[in-house]
Amino acid sequence: MNKHAKPEFPPIQFLAVGEEEYVLIPMRLLRAMEDLExxxxxxxxARALRERDSRAPTVPAAVVHAIAGGAHPVRAWRxxxxxxxxxxxxxxxTSKAYISHIERGMRQPALALTKAFSRVLDAPxxxxxxxxxxxxxxxxxxxxxxxxx
Length: 149
Description:
It is a single chain. Helices cover 54% and strands 7% of the residues. With 149 residues, the chain is mostly helical. It has 2 domains: 13-51, no CATH class; 61-137, lambda repressor-like DNA-binding domains (434 Repressor (Amino-terminal Domain)), CATH 1.10.260. A two-stranded antiparallel ribbon has the order 1-2. Helix 2 (61-68) packs antiparallel against helix 3. The protein is elongated. The termini are far apart.
């Protein structure tokens, strides 16, 4: 086949049903369009990866999905790292009960404790502070720097 020749597709049909207009296309054309969309997604992802600032913090998809699903950011990171509330409390010098209160949105951690969470959970501090603030923002509780551990 000539590399400049256009592929042969059956004609596209236009239909009108009442007030609505429809287009009937061959399945091969639909699949070709889907393949092009997939290729575009891959190219955009590759470009984003090339242009990404290597110093910018990253958040694992599992953490993002957990937070988007309503999990407290500390819980999302803790579970991602495979830690229990008890282990996180021990490593940050607080109590399991206090971790539980934080994760249920009943308390906001002090900035010093948030820094400890960041260190133990290997989570970017600025991302963690922002996520905790956003989570607590709608709950009428204090900000991360307001509550003592």
